[in-house]
């Protein structure tokens, strides 16, 4: 389990939005390359891939 975490260049507004969306289940988030994982508790991890929306 990852507690806390900080995305490079991540604004506090984004972190507050994630906390608001996940509610009390929010644990933290971490980044590995373009992949961002949001840990929302013991059973759920939301994963996002950052990058261009269209293939090049």
TrEMBL record:
It comes from bioreactor metagenome. This is FIST C-domain domain-containing protein.
